[in-house]
């Protein structure tokens, strides 16, 4: 056995700290997972801020031609979406901030609480995202409708009359709404799984291993 093999074998041996606390490796693993979660939350929050600034600027861009009642409705939905989004970002912020404390990652009880808090935060994220689907659809309608958005809203308001006079418009609206909902749901579920869900599962796996040991 050469020197490198001896060094590797020595490094793989458990330290006194590991022997005193056999769950230490799981605590460290959860700490690494939380670091990745913090990075993802910051990344998504920055992306959200950029997206909000873009959406706020949309009516001011000549290409979209959004004005009058359509502009008022547009900003009304923007405010709703912003407030709803801040709800779960605030929850994530305080959760991640509290998880920075070392003692919270030093016992199974605290890790268990952290797991359920994270799981609840992710479910809140999912619920808020689904609740915002109607607002998102109206924003999309206003953006693609541009100066025709008000006329489209009037047609939707007078649904029965429009159904008789222009059934193709109603059919187009229904199909567009269904396709948009499917796309939003798929994107939401993908983001939840990629940004949060997999990491929450990893924390649960560490908890299960700690219990088994």
Automatic annotation (TrEMBL):
Protein name in UniProt: Uncharacterized protein
What organism does this protein naturally occur in?
A: Sphingobacterium detergens
What ranges does the record list as Basic and acidic residues composition bias?
A: 1-10
Q: Where are the transmembrane segments?
A: 45-64, 70-89, 127-149, 169-192
Disordered as annotated region, ranges: 1-21
Q: What is the lineage of its organism?
A: Bacteria, Pseudomonadati, Bacteroidota, Sphingobacteriia, Sphingobacteriales
Going by the UniProt record, its keywords in alphabetical order are: Membrane, Transmembrane, Transmembrane helix
């Amino acid at each position: 056995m050469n020197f490198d093999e001896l060094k590797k074998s020595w490094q793989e041996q458990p330290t006194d700290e590991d022997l005193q606390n056999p769950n230490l490796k799981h605590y460290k693993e959860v700490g690494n997972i939380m670091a990745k979660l913090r990075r993802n939350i910051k990344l998504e929050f920055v992306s959200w801020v950029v997206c909000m600034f873009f959406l706020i600027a949309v009516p001011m861009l000549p290409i979209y031609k959004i004005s009058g009642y359509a502009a008022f409705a547009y900003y009304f939905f923007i405010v709703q979406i912003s407030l709803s989004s801040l709800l779960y970002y605030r929850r994530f912020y305080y959760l991640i901030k509290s998880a920075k404390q070392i003692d919270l990652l030093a016992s199974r009880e605290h890790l268990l609480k952290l797991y359920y808090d994270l799981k609840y935060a992710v479910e809140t994220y999912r619920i808020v995202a689904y609740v915002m689907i109607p607002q998102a659809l109206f924003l999309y309608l206003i953006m693609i409708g541009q100066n025709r958005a008000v006329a489209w809203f009037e047609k939707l308001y007078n649904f029965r009359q429009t159904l008789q006079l222009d059934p193709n418009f109603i059919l187009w609206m229904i199909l567009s709404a269904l396709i948009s909902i499917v796309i939003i749901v798929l994107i939401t579920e993908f983001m939840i799984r990629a940004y949060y869900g997999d990491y929450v599962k990893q924390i649960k796996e560490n908890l299960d291993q700690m219990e088994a040991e």
